[in-house]
TrEMBL record:
Region forming the signal peptide: none
Species in which this protein is naturally found: Actinomadura rugatobispora
Name used for this protein in its record: Phosphotransferase family protein
Domain Aminoglycoside phosphotransferase: 85-172
Length: 225
């Protein structure tokens, strides 16, 4: 955080040659298209081998995803509103590519809708006036509209919802409610497999299975039933 001519600014930086710089460039490119939802990008600087972005500072709390939280309606409303935006040309990432190789055909995940794809509670800020802001747009992608709600479901299970309760929350999103159940089944399965493989490739010293794996496996078992 720095204080300057535009007031408090939230600063993100990465070495220009690193992978994080590519993520920051994607954030800078999409920011003008999502200003209704995201903190405004004030400036971009490249100097001394570093890429630095200065964003509007937002004073807010992280969203609460626990059962009964009023924030859950706010998250659902954000997804519905985001679905009304046309996906800008600067968004080149295609969400189905994340699961290629985990199933014979993942084309049901493809689409033309703008997706944030990482609506975890820490990326969802709510001001004291109740206005929501969504941060960290580096992995914005285009894909099937219902996937956005699907990406939130494991976070709801992690926060204490049962898989059935999490899916009932997702029914607030029309695209989810209209989605082919077989496509959701596939998504739940490949999502669990993707994170299981990630866990195997990055084992914890304790040997325990991370909760980000167990919640997705729990959801996949629910869908299989």
């Amino acid at each position: 955080m720095v204080d300057g001519s535009v007031g408090l600014t939230f600063v993100k930086a990465a070495t220009i040659s690193g992978r994080q710089a590519r993520a920051l460039r994607r954030e800078a490119e999409i920011n003008p298209h999502v200003r209704e939802f995201a903190p405004r990008l004030h400036w971009t600087v490249e100097t001394g081998g570093w890429l630095v972005l200065g964003f509007e500072h937002v004073e807010g709390r992280h969203a609460n995803y626990a059962p009964g939280s009023p924030d859950l309606n706010t998250v659902a409303a954000f997804i519905r509103e985001l679905h009304m935006l046309a996906c800008p040309d600067v968004v080149e990432m295609r969400v189905e590519r994340r699961w290629e190789g985990l199933a014979e055909d993942v084309s049901v995940l493809a689409g033309a809708t703008l997706l944030h794809t990482d609506l975890n509670p820490r990326n969802f800020l709510i001001t004291r006036f109740g206005r929501p802001y969504v941060v960290d747009w580096a992995f914005a992608s285009r894909g099937a509209a219902w996937i956005e709600a699907g990406q939130v479901i494991p976070w709801l299970i992690h926060a204490g919802h049962s898989p059935a309760e999490a899916e009932a929350w997702a029914d607030q999103v029309p695209a989810w409610k209209l989605a082919d159940p077989a496509a959701i089944d596939l998504y739940a399965q490949v999502s669990a497999e993707r994170w299981r493989l990630h866990s195997q490739a990055n084992p914890r010293p304790s040997g325990e299975v991370p909760e980000y794996v167990t919640v997705r496996e729990r959801w996949a078992r629910h869908r299989a039933r």
